[in-house]
Amino acid sequence: MAAREPSRFLSRALPRASVPSIRPQGFLSRRNVSDEAPSRRLSDHLSELESASSLSTPVPDSAAQSFDPVARAKARKTQLPRGRYQFRSPKYDRGPLHPHQPPPASDPSSRLFVPGPFSAPRAEQTYDATVAADIMSLCYVHTPPGFTPPPKAPRLREWDDSSPYHKNRVLRGPRGGDVLRLLRKPIKFNNIPEIERITIHSYVNKAATENSSWLHVAGIAVQAISNVRVETFKSKTSVANWGIVPGRDSVAVKAELYGENMYHFLGKLVDVVLPRIKDWEGVKGTSGDSSGNITFGMEPENVALFPEIEVNYDMYPPKMIPGCHITLHTSARTDKDARLLLSAMGIPFYGKIVN
Amino acid sequence: MSSGSNGARRMVSLLRPSIVDPGVCRSCQETLGRRSYASAAPAATETTSTSASTTPVVKPAYTINAGVVLSRPPQITRDLEPFEKSYYFYQKRLNERLALPFTKYFYFKRGTPADEDWKKKILERRTAARDIGKYNAYDSEAWNDELLLGAKESEPEHQVEMLLQDAESTANATSQDTSKKEEIPRPFPRVTEADKKNDQKSLDRLLSRTLYLLVQSKEGHWKFPSSPVESGETLRLAAERTLAQSAGVNMNTWMVGYHPVGWHAYNPPRAKSDKQTEVEVAGSKIFFLKSRIMAGQADLSVNTQNLKDFKWLSKEELSKYLNTQYYSNIKNMLADR
Question: Looking at the domain covering A195-350, what would its CATH class be?
Fold first, then answer.
């Protein structure tokens, strides 16, 4: 083994390129005697590569101006049959052994392809350039060298073996409640809280008491402000005075926003809609599910402030514009961290702050 | 656990100063000392035996300085790369090909001015989208969805201009009053006056980048504002004082946290001894705290730190002004953009 290791002095004496890499690189690192032949030297292969990208070479103006793909296609005497150049993805996935496989969903010819992204959202750029680094500095906790945190009690309580029936029994939950809260890890560069998704949910009770048009309008309005197709939901609970029966009446619409849509929505919310709400103090400090997700409600007249609805206000029956609940799901483990993130992104909080 | 006597604890705490490690800062030593009684006791017995045998070695000490990295965050979005521009544009045209057609009859009533305006525009640009150029996604030539060399359609400025022109022409075509022309204000330019004049003292320059405040001492070298921490002062207080003493109080700033985000050690070739205390000084260590400027401007006219000039610079420009060693120590605490 030791004989195969390259000598320290050898590697120094040789030029950098000819030193064999210590790290195994799969089959590429396998060397054969035939590799030493002059036709297969590494340097010869490298010399074949072009030094500059072909894109950087200037195109002559005449070539650029005379290039007209439509005219070229029309000048063709005989057209190719469609099947020769238009790929159609199979309609059904018939399993991995079928010879006709659908392309991956990222391929534009796939039936599952969804185009996008179309822009780099401003809110996301603000988060990347400013907010993330500030949160990391704010949440830093210094642990001096040699410091070991005191051991914590186990989260689940064990049974004292006072009874023989305690053997192999599942552990008990914490005292005072049966919910195990999320563990908060120290915030480092790799777990800075960020907004994961936004849910817009609207419960329209008139959809059950009157007619379905309320639900249609609510769905269209939520779709308009979110740029996401909504899902409708049937009621799970019975509400006697509205005559809602569980499982019968569709009463709610929901849109889940991710990525680009989410950041555009947040930007609109923070910069256009929330500042225009009259006498609005902010999101309540008590809001949150204590695992980093914050919810607040919007009245119908505030939903109408969204620019997408405002430009087109006449198209909506004014009474039917819905209110909604907006949930901001963050990757923070506690509401305190989530509030830190959201207030940095521009959402105000007021009142008693509960963590 | 709680059965240990109070007297034993006091004895341990008396013995504790002997475990001082010169590599650990004072506040950390206090934290370590406060740690746990169980682990402190054996450590204490260990060190009493060693401290008796060895004489304390006086190492030349460093002076601790507090520095402030005062920054103005980016005000506008970054400039897109050419590849990003073409990618986003191509995705828009793909979307036009794959989405359901625009339902004109839902949005425009027949015979209204808005409808007439729509008809005129759709003849011009062939599509409902206003920012993807002249392109019909339902045509037999819809396959020709790529831009030719030198086309402006993928430029964000061009797209914004198209949207605004469309809004203006709609407003003009549908308004009752034909004498007045609707003018929608254009967005402010991304390149400001300060950029054109290369005014490096202005906070209006390089709007899409983070700017950092750099000050020049009377001797002529550039640095972040910094000064020695006085006795009984925390790093944060020292940083706030440094900022007020160097760049004036005419700034609305926010210190980000209480912890330094980076540090730089200055080692002169030969250790000097301090004239007043006769303690040998090995050099100085600067611990940088992060700060953001909200409003105001730096003003060196009343500074007490021997400074003569200041500049607001981006990360790349910092490397031209700062000493190589200094820059290599601080560059990783600066934002990329």
Answer: alpha beta
